[in-house]
Amino acid sequence: MTDIIDKTMVMKCVAYQKGVSIGDVTIEDISEVLKLEHTFVWLGLREASRELMAKIQEEFGLHDLAIEDALAAHQRPKVEEYGDSLFMVLHTAHLEGDCLAFGETHFFMGERFLVTIRHGDSRDHSKVRSRCEAMPHELSKGPGFALYSIMDFIVDNYVPVIDGLQERFDVLESAIFEYKPSRQTIEGLYELKRELLLLDGIINPVIDICNELMRFHNSIVPKEVRVYFRDVADHSKRIQQVIQGMREMLVAAMQVHLTFETVRQNEVVKRLAGWGAILAIPTMVFSWYGMNFRHMPELEWEYSYPLVVGGVSLASLVLFLRLKKVGWL
Questions:
Q1: Distance (Å, rounded) from C-alpha 46 to C-alpha 90?
Q2: Domains along the chain?
Q3: Beta-ladder partners of 205
Q4: What is the secondary structure of 98-163 as a DSSP string?
Q5: Tens digit of pLDDT for each residue in 201-231?
Q6: What's the CA dihedral at 87, 214, 14, 31 to 10 degrees?
Q7: Does the pTM exceed 0.85?
Q8: What CA–CA distance (Å, rounded) separates 246 from 210?
């Protein structure tokens, strides 16, 4: 049993009676504690092994399919009902420097218990538990309030991510309007667009999950806690609106970047065309004198050379000034 219950996997297991902690509970004693009236168990796990999950299944009476999903990360956000318990998956996100890190939190919830299993880069829930324990009246409503608290914590952690991505967008936007289009800028915009798409994909299902918890599963989600999930849904909708706005601005920024790049290329082409026109004058004259005609009267004239050089220089200067005035050079 010692090998099964690894301390690094079990974060916290506490029993609450009428919203007040009555102490830590060992995995083996969970089924006995659940027999007490007005009591529920809140168990937090991290990267639980198959052996530990088998013991958890035995203590809480969980469904085999839900256990299989909980063992495998990379689940889509969802809520599923298995008899007298719910299985839920939410994705977490936070910034590590400039990199976006994702994780998953899986939930098992019944009338008398809440089990959370964190996978990947998911934040610790100790602050959430402490905040709930400071509100015994709300916690007395059962595991539904604890579930709301963790969901609200996960959604709130999306906000710093959005703020960080907004700062990156502002830097890229400034680079664009400073007329400095570059490969690095367009790559940064594309990467930001990809990350916003991923965030949108993990936030959208939260709204659907909250709506389902508010409308269905009456025997598991008490009526008095459903209003809390409406609050989580509202937060998610606001974040979703910000993401959609950023995505629209991002598309516009990419179009502006490409437009500026096209303008810059046109400027280069104009300059090349202008110099080509200037060089065409001496090229034409020198080609003319390079045709080796036998009778060219000006070849014997004393001032032929300086006159030709001066005429070519003057014509080239006049054309240069003209092109400079219209902005081609």
A1: 14
A2: 1-138 (3.30.460.20), 262-325 (1.20.58)
A3: none
A4: TEEEEEEEEEEE-SSEEEEEEEES----HHHHHHHHT-HHHHTT-HHHHHHHHHHHHHHTHHHHHH
A5: 888 889 888 988 888 877 788 888 888 888 8
A6: -60
A7: no
A8: 24
